Amino acid sequence: MFNEIAPAPRLLSTLSDLKEWCLIAVGYAPQGIASHVARFLKACAGSISMGAVCRRHLPYHGAFAPITTTMHLPTEDFQGHPLVWIGHADSYLLLAPQHGGRLVRWVHRGQDILYWPDAADWSCPAKVRGGNPLLFPFAGRHFVKGNPGQWRDSQGKVHSLALHGFARDLPFEVSAINGRASIRMTLRDSGATRAGYPFAFVFEAIYALLPDGLEVTLRTINTGTQCLPCYPGHHFYFALPHSQRAAASLALPRTERLRQRSDGSPMCAEPGEPTYRLDDPRLQDALHAFRANPSATLAIPGRKIRFELNQPGSAPWHAVTTWSETETADFYCVEPWVGLPDAIHHGLGLRWIEPGQKESAVCRLRVTSDLLALAKVRSDDEVAPT
């Protein structure tokens, strides 16, 4: 019933422990058994909510975009679609493995950390501005002779590959899950990937909830016989009303700020600032290449999010990218990238993985809340004119 990182039985000393563990177990049980177990638990300990069990912990058996796995997954309905749920009552993740392994929602202590539009177009989730799209095998834009979406391999052959790669467009399988703490989603090479990226690989995204945040690991395994190039990344859409941009800031260690030219090459870098307000136009579509231990701190009214990017055993993070769609968008993107865009040609952050080897890029996001500031923001929102 339980896979390698699923919760194992332990000594259950209280009714609360029993209820909590059984709720998790129900989520892994076959559908018919699960319903009987839930009814039995309700009869023995009436405080267990059947609604909560059925809504959150029972596996989904519908027809919508089935996940490529034989596991029974805890799901929650979100905007009319079943998403995989992990976490606790007030701190949890909602994920769509079948849609590019997308992290759709991250709630930390009752607060949404990421943006997701109320009217998302689920007919093409890869194009939705929100959550955290996974960027693999290459983050950013790549060019050959000024033509976007192309890259040239070491033999001189030109291949077509979309902006940010293909991972966000393809279904992942759930290869391991702990409904209380973590999930591992896996993408393997196929005919669809080899058309523009002729390498054998396994790409894994591992999300693990922390008491004060989230750890995300992007792992690339070379299952082929030739050296594999890659530079994956994240595209976090952080929730931030556009009216609060002037009150929000991004703090960085020593960096160089640069942009990408129309032919894909990086512009001449200039020294970065230690702190930027998020309404600073210099941040738009800017690359911040680290020249000291990689980190970043996003401060918005009510909370701070610290990116801890210098993790033991992790591939080096070369830069963070800052971007937002418009000045009136209610999100702001701070994106850790292993390499600069077009690194396949200029080499800045390009990683090569030998056959049979693997490499992980690990980032931790620590969240701290300023309750007084958050209360003021809520008060201002309540009295703001409509």
UniProtKB/TrEMBL annotation:
| SUPFAM superfamilies membership | Galactose mutarotase-like (SSF74650)
Q: Which UniProt keywords apply?
A: Plasmid
Query: What would you give as a GO molecular function for this chain, any one?
Result: isomerase activity
Q: Which domain of life is it from?
A: Bacteria
Q: Which GO terms describe its biological process?
A: carbohydrate metabolic process
InterPro entries xrefs: Aldose_1/G6P_1-epimerase (IPR008183), Gal_mutarotase_sf_dom (IPR011013), GH-type_carb-bd (IPR014718)
Name of the featured protein: Aldose 1-epimerase/Galactose mutarotase
